[in-house]
Specification:
binds coenzyme A; about 240 residues; Ribosomal Protein L22, Chain A; 11 strands
Length: about 240
């Protein structure tokens, strides 16, 4: 898998690594040797083996990628947390990244100089979409979802959910920002990217979102600033 990691990243490019996470084929201990002590301790704290695997596999791929690009030892890369928990690289904050994992699949987005957010969801997961929609979507987002018929309604729910979540993760605010305060506008005809409106985030009008193709039943959405979207390179590992 690690041979498929790209050799580097250039300015104006977003790199996305996308991969399966399968507790039947792999174990979290397969990934432990790239991780420092504190991440191994964190992995041990998860109760379920699949949660241990999701965390360790993502951190291992993240560390192997950064170590290839920076020519540094995987365990010595110093990953710190922003105030609301977004991980960043302490010594090389210019390489921005974000991780997302769900049952069965994960993605990591990288970008030079500009922040990124990524979210992946399993659309087959048991979610009462009508109940959740009322809690997290704006009136106009709910109208868009309700205009669809089954099963497109479910798909639209997750398209808007992952867009919003990618925005919340791009800003680093996560759920400290009420999701209802963010309006996601799907790309209009001839436009590649969707846009956001959020009066609580200064540069929200400069942020874009785009769906990253991945296998069914997953939906993955990337949020990045307009300037950084010259090229999106997706690497299935
Ligand atoms: C952490 C959070 C930002 C995302 O959580 P999530 O969707 O459950 O999980 P994801 O797999 O997409 O993301 C988790 C990763 O995001 C990163 N992360 C943690 N806090 C973050 C933050 N404030 N901003 C950006 N990234 C963050 C971490 O790398 C974490 O993975 P790791 O700890 O294994 O390295 C959480 O605060 C959140 O928003 N939960 C969403 C649940 C929800 O109800 N959303 C409503 C729909 S919009």
């Amino acid at each position: 898998m690690h041979q498929k990691i790209p050799n580097g990243i250039i300015e104006g490019e977003v790199v996305v690594l996308a991969f399966e996470v399968d507790p039947i084929k792999e174990s979290w201990t397969d990934y432990a040797n790239s991780l420092p002590r504190n991440e191994i301790d964190r992995a041990r704290e998860f109760h379920y083996p699949q949660d241990k695997l999701r965390f360790t596999k993502c951190r291992s791929i993240l560390r192997n990628t950064l170590s290839k690009w920076l020519n540094d030892n995987t365990k010595e890369l110093n990953i710190a947390l922003e105030t609301n928990g977004k991980p960043y690289l302490k010594e090389n904050p210019e390489i921005q990244f974000n991780i997302s994992h769900t049952e069965g699949f994960a993605g990591i987005a990288f970008c030079m100089e500009y922040g990124v957010g990524i979210d992946v969801e399993n659309t087959a997961r048991a979610t009462d979409i009508d109940q959740v929609a009322k809690k997290v979507f704006t009136e106009s987002e709910q109208v868009i979802i309700n205009a669809e018929t089954t099963p497109d309604k479910r798909k639209m729910f997750f398209r808007l959910w992952t867009a919003k979540e990618a925005f919340l993760k791009n800003t680093g605010l996560g759920l400290t920002l009420d999701p209802k305060k963010v309006e996601s506008n799907l790309p209009t005809e001839n436009k590649k990217y969707g846009t956001f409106e959020c009066s609580q985030v200064k540069n929200s009008s400069g942020l874009r979102f785009v769906e990253i193709s991945c296998p069914e039943p997953y939906i993955m959405t990337l949020s990045a600033s307009e300037e950084s979207l010259g090229e999106i390179s997706v690497f299935p590992l």
